[in-house]
Amino acid sequence: MMKKKMRVLASVFAISMALTTLSACGGKDDKSANADDPNAKDTITALLPPVSANFQDRFKDMEKQFNEKYPNLTLKIEPASWEDMTQKLDTQVNAGSPPDIAFMGSDGISKYAQNDMLMDISDVATEDMLKDYDPAPLEYMKNGKGLYGFPAYMEAHAIGGNKEYLEKAGIDYKKVQKEGWTFDEFREAIKKGVVTENGKTSRYGFVFATAGVTSKDYLGILVKSAGMPAAFTKDLKYAYTSKNFLEVLKDIRVMIDDGSMPKELSSIDAGKRWNMFLTGQTMITGKGLAVFERSAKLNNEKLKNKDDSAVKGSIPVEYVVLPVPSFAGAEAQASVAVDGYVTFQGTKDPTAAHKANVVKAANFLSSGEIAATTNNELYVAQITESGRKAAESMPSDRDPDNKAAVEAMLKTAVPARPDIPTDLGAKAIKLEDEVIVPKLQALIAGEITPEAMYEAVKSAAVQAFGEDGIVKD
């Protein structure tokens, strides 16, 4: 599903193993490869991971539907796992023959834009196509003035609670869903969720995955609700030298020190985090995604049917969507994942006809019934008018309060920042990888203080952006 694995943020690297690559910019035998005839036969290639549970099972039907809509066009889909998606895409990009379309996180667009391998469709996407998409997620598919594909969904990064435990702790979770909460309120709530037996903690108030692919998630999500919605301010000053950044670091440490979170937090990955939630070892879990409600329901059903594939030691859980608290007196802003169908081109410029055909395919995949079916499976909001209309006839057992909570968070979604230059963005990612992530792991493990981490980040920021390129407050 929409795990952090799907993020295409790693630097492009050379891969020696031979992998079959997709033909770039249409099949070699396509008439449109050398012509601008809009009615000529053409093949559009797409590299797609298992976006939802049954997504890849529908590939043949999707190819057929596209051909029925555009008889002269063929959509050729290559499946990829989440694990090898980045490797396959990077191999094809390095060979100069990427797929026409790849499903990926919008935060990876700047990476490929630097290599001139993306196809800017801003001059080809029609007004009818564009007005179908909600404006906020569509902005995430831009870099500078270019538009590089269409969004599939905009998913809020929330946290999730066990309804029974929240009620036992006296937490008015419905009020929190509607109004949010401050860090101080959140801290008191998670203290109430801790259960100790024989001097040992059997249930924590809060657990967040911080190991492996989730190492960037924790801090990245929290700082957005601390007055730092992006790594750069509107005037392009590096934001994480703000005093609010230090406050968040202190708050991260204090939740461990007061026993609300496990001391071994730095070793908890996404799988263990979810296992702890389903086995009743934590009241609240993070990062929470809308589809976790569905995952909990599926496990509940397995428990009911005494299915051996249920998580070992798990209990029935009613999953409650909760917003991330606000920090340092700032307004809460929802961190979001906007993933979608990104358009690529090879070393040769595509013909006008092929470019238009790629846009038709990307639009087909990201709107209407295709998008509605996938998003309905994921429990995420529909972000196209055509998708909303198609979803009206689709059954859903989603909790209405959870649905409303996600919709409320999406209204506070951090806006896209296509104005951040790619060179600044690249420097920020480098600083994150080389300084922030390792220092955060040390902070969580109790090896350094919040102040020491803050000074290390500030020093690295000055080196990267200069004294005048950082926030000083």
From TrEMBL:
> Which Pfam families does the record match to this protein?
SBP_bac_1
Asked if the Swiss-Prot or TrEMBL record annotates the protein with the keyword Signal, the reply is yes
Swiss-Prot/TrEMBL keywords = Signal
State if ATP-binding is listed as a keyword: no
What residue range is the signal peptide? 1-23
Instruction: Provide the protein name.
Output: Extracellular solute-binding protein
What is the source species?
A: Paenibacillus albilobatus
